[in-house]
Sequence to fold (438 residues):
Amino acid sequence: MKTLLVRIAALSVMLLPAVGEAARAWLLPSQTILARSGGWVAVDAAMADDLFSFNQAAMPIDSLAVTGPDGQPVAAQNPTKSRTRSSFDLELRSAGTYRIAVVDDAVMARWEEDGKPKRWRGTAAEMAAGIPANAAKLEIEQMQRRVETFVSVGSPTDAKATMGTGLELAPVRHPNDLYAQETAKFRFLLDGKPAKDLEVEVIAGGTRYRDQPAAMIFKTGKDGEIAITWPAAGMYWLEVSLQDEHATVPGVKSRRASYAATFEVLTQ
Amino acid sequence: MIRKSRVAPLLALIVCGGGANAADLSLSVEIPQLPVAEYHKPYVAIWIEGADQSIAANLAVWYQVRGDHTKWLPDLRQWWRRGGRDVTVPVDGLTGATRPVGQHLLKFDAAQAPLAALKPGKYELVVEAVREVGGREAVRIPFEWPIKSAKTGGAKGTRELGAVALSLNP
Fold:
């Protein structure tokens, strides 16, 4: 019986896609709207399917990038990584919108060496050193991931997409100006151009206290836009991902790109 | 329930507010007594909203002025989103300390700021109150500008606000 279980386990590992379905990645800010004098915001970063319960794994924040209203980076304070979540504080004093993002751009490779499977993960620059030139059955994939949230001090300012690579959000309605029963338009960009025909999933927090996930699914139009009517106030998680053959790393074709964000929707 | 009306400042306002026959907008706002263990006087914002839902005129903002408590101003959610977030407090003649339980009277001269700049059209008077460890509520009274004839309007809150009465006097 035990052997059978082990075999089934081994089989299910083999059946997993090239990159396993990871738990949902999210940032959870203590608040998204601050008075004009600014203040402190605490942010949790976790990988957990229950929104927003940090009950699975911490999300690494090595690639955290906080951008202030003036476009300059803002340093995170008191960063900690505990078992099921990472945390950090931000002291936000200048008026305007801050983009808080964990951005990863990595290359994953799998090949065989002496009949044994080998794996490697690193940056595009480390590829030559990390992957043997004559690797057999080599499969390389670029992974672009952006997980973010927004906080505004006083009046929100433009939170435009800035990178021009991977999946990004170019909000039409400001992400700190969302209210229950109102409709907000969001535009998604892939490599800086409208990302059309993509499925966007939006789920309200508190999934543990509902029988159904109640995910709302939207499809981006030609302009990369979706229109979300928020059913109620609360924290929401949004995710969109794609797989294509337009990797931006030389020598790599296959790519997975994902974008996830947390939004606070307020009462009327 | 009228516990303490601030008659002296009100009178001062009326006396300084121009001639006896000047058109005015008067309102009374009741802050109700609530049977709660922990009571804090509410933050209150009173403004005139245009048809496009933007703030046409801010009339009053009451918050805890002693100490640095402006961080709670965004809890006046409607006021904040409609334009409160563009206001650097304190503002002379607009912001003031929180008010106690009771009826509060305010009077604004139609020919003076902030009403003098009001363009003819349809508006709503909005009163929003939010209380620490308590609730939030906003009431609205529609009216038309300018004042052509004497008009009154009223609204009643269900918890955080009592009766709100508006009177327009030509």
Remarks:
- The longest helix of chain A spans residues 2-15.
